[in-house]
Sequence to fold (564 residues):
Amino acid sequence: MRPLWPLAVITFKEGIRNRALYGIFLLALLLFVANFLICGMIMQEVGKVAVDVALSAVSFSGLLLVLFVGINLLAKDLDRRTIYMVLARPISRRHYIWGKFLGMAMLIVTATAMLGGCALLSIGSVRWAFPSYFPRFAWSPVLLALMLITLMLVLLAGMSFLFASFATSSFVTLILTVVSYLIGHGVAAIKALVESPAAVGIEVSATTVRVVKAAYYLFPNLSLFDIKVQAAHNLPVSWTYLAGTVAYGLFYTALSVTLAGLVFSRREFP
Amino acid sequence: MRRLLATLVLVAALAAGQVATLWWAAGARQDLPLPEDHSYVLPGPLLRVVAGEFRGLAADFCFLQGLTAYGKLLESAGPSQARDSDWQRVYRLLDAATDLDPYFFDPYYFGNAVLSRNPEMIPRINQLLEKGLEWRDWDWLLPFYLGFNHFYYLQDSGRASEYLMLGAQRPDAMPLLATLAARLAYQENRTENAIVFLRGILSRTEDERTRELYQVRLEALEKIHYLEQAVLVYRQHYGEMPGTLNVLQERGVISAIPEDPYGGTFYLDADGSVKSTSELTYAKGGTSNEIPAN
Fold:
């Protein structure tokens, strides 16, 4: 842990100083203000819509953070060849990857905590304006949803590290991470779709079913981390489900970063 | 200084140009041909895939699009002349919103309030409400709406009674529900029961514009009930049916025949019941007081 900490702190500080962060926060702020306008158009379940918009804004801003700030934290070292300076130090490549990842995870946790705070403020103020339209509202599921969003973003950052470990440019890493995100959120629904195609009147070949099933186990199932609908309606979320999802997130992230370290330690630099 | 002035003039000219071209292009866009059936909305399972983790937000968006589609329907033709595809579009958007988030109450609430202005949409509304019934298993309002639709539009008091019984068992249900269910089981006092129903709905409806929709219906039913009572008095007094409603006025049973708030005219049907040429929708009568729902 000792050699990782300074690297994690440097990475965290580098991320905080990134100007893109201001843009992302500005966007989130606009979305939280938009919450008021959108909720004004809803007739009954204003609380549900307020939670939907606020949590989606956190998730979307966090996604931008991982894609445009996070990826650069590792890829910039590779693109600008500053990696040589780091590797000349007495630190293994695996430690380098884990140190960078820890810094990135700290950045994500800090950013989502701030965004989450704004989201709670936004929901609170809509509730203050329309108190009788929050029939089934509770804070605890919203906090749980925020926690799972954070974990999902950390997992995605882990995936981006895996891609960066072998990709030749940050753009390739970005594309691969976006694709993983899209597949990760759609794969469970697509699997359900191809397993019962009659629901939408489509025909699916056996090969497609096999490909989708393979993707289901290969790519992270990010939809597990999405309990926004449950939070919006204050529906019960079991502790078993939460524990399983958190464990799955930690396992998948550890797997991604370990693999990233393995690939990175064998990589040859020109 | 002169340079700054020139730049400011240029900026002002470009800004004015921007506004003018926006107005021009947006106007031209309105004339673009639309496909004949523009009511198509992607099926729910596909929308779920496309929406990803923003399913709840996509549901809100579909619902707001449904509101807009209904607004356009009112604006372009009014409920009496609107094409079937316009009604279908509103329904499909609300259906998509509830496919994305089946717990979302507003699409059921709005769909029930406005789509019923087209009697042909009743089976669709009931389909939508049935979906909500399954998911929102704590909500007594959806079985209440279904009960009303079966009783009033489909004239199926048996089913209506079943829905009301179901609603009465749900938490915080209006105490009236069980009584209504029992009354409906006898299949009598149709108008009176409908009035009790509507008063119940009104007591739980806060949105002003939706209240107006229900209030117009309640007013019409109260007038019909008044006329039915007059027919009953006439029969008891003269031992025969009055023939037309004008006879009631001529013989002094009533002072005047009330006006139908939907713009139609009340008449006495061959089976002895009081009806209106408007059929209590805006479909045949005038549309003097169109009420946009939102």
In short: Strands of chain B lie at 266-268, 274-276. Residues 137-204 of chain B form one domain. Chain B touches chain A through 27 residues (CB under 8 Å).
